[in-house]
């Protein structure tokens, strides 16, 4: 049976930095690599909120991106 083995985890914060000419939001993101794979969603949320508190822009999204190797 195949297994998924986590090899990488990243935390991505997306900030709303303003509006474009059409009045739609403009976003910029910052990705933090080497996130501990065993980190829980609550832990990442807490860290993301703390990091976002250092920015002058409001946090629009907080994402976790995991990469897996599939082995058989």
Automatic annotation (TrEMBL):
InterPro entries: DUF1659. It holds the Pfam family DUF1659. Residues 3-71 form the DUF1659 domain. It comes from the Bacteria. This is DUF1659 domain-containing protein.
């Amino acid at each position: 049976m195949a297994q998924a083995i986590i090899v990488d985890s990243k935390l991505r914060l997306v900030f709303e930095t303003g509006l474009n000419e059409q009045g739609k939001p403009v976003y910029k993101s910052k990705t933090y690599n080497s996130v501990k794979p065993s980190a829980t969603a609550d832990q990442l949320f807490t860290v993301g909120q703390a990091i976002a508190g250092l920015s002058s822009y409001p946090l629009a999204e907080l994402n976790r991106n995991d990469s897996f190797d599939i082995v058989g």
